Amino acid sequence: MSTVEKTRKISRKFPVTRCTDIAILIFLAVFPFFAREFRVEMMGSYICYAIFALSLDLLWGYTGLLSLGHAVLFGMGGYMIGLSYQIQNGVPAFMQREGITELPWFYAPLKDPIVAAIIGIVLPAAFAFLIGKFVFSSKIKGVFFTIITLALAQIFKDFIINLQKYTNGFNGLQSIQRFALHKNPPLTKVQYYYVILAVGTAVFLFCMWLTNSRIGKVCTSVRENESRLGFLGYNTSAYKILIFTVSGALAGLAGVMYAPCTSTITTEDIGVAASTMAVIRVAVGGRGNLTGAVVGTLLVSWAQSLLSEYFSGYWQLIIGVLLLAVIYFIPDGIMGRVIKLTRRGADDAKSGKEPKNRKVTGNVYSLQRR
Prior knowledge:
Strand order of the largest sheet: 1-2
Mean pLDDT: 86
Largest sheet: 2 strands, antiparallel
Distance between the termini: 24 Å
Number of domains: 1
CATH class: Mainly Alpha
CATH architecture: Orthogonal Bundle
Strand content: under 5%
Low-confidence stretches: 355-370
Order of helices and strands: HHHHHHHHEHHHEHHHHEE
Shape: globular
Structural class: mainly alpha
């Protein structure tokens, strides 16, 4: 077997995306061993952002539905677990300042953090289902769906702010514990980091299974040509509702994991700006590619952190220019470009574009004169 044939065989078994996935997983697994605790906490929040990006990639990258209000679903999960830990010792201080002396009845299910976490996943999924049912059953598509989600993001943010006596408004929720159950001490930052990593890995594997399943293939076909799929007898609205619901559940899970990691959740995590950042992360990594969503999230988030430390006055301008450059020069995203280059090399090898007058003997190329 020649070297070229061996290379092709290896590339089929281990595509560049899978190699990248394994490399990222190994890096994240050993990260706490050489990083300070502060950096470990930051990286944990980036993994939560990666889960959030994966949920958006299912919707936008694979199904072609751009949501500019996806942070609403993320915020629902974060606020459910955040409120749970605020009411562990009775009526929180921000409610007492508003004259509330007894805990409202609708907060009763949140007293148990596990129940609150489940609600934080189910509630966004149910909300996404209802919105999807209304939008997609009405044949609303394209930019109109994007506009609706944009409006929802602003409405939800105003809702949280206006209900200050129940949500603490602009100030958000602080001192959220890292899943302290039944009066046990909370997890350490490193322990919770590995919990997030395990959940993130499980979500990634689930998304891989989903995108390679029949449902994922149909959703990709919806993105490419929804009308033709309808002519073939598929109920495209049902598939879009389904993927929006799954995406909502994963976004809520990301919020549930994020709030205890950073010990806070605010209106800045649920509005249009947060939704737009998720879109940018997916676009930079490469939409329609799960590995790209993770790579884009880690690179953009880490760049934001480093630039804000060293260029505190104008870091946002720098990162804005860098993001525009990446999106302009690499429209398919980083992983999209890597995959294209890899496929181009494989196609060249397959078509026999090798040096002339060169004969393959075993694993060694030997030149021959004609």
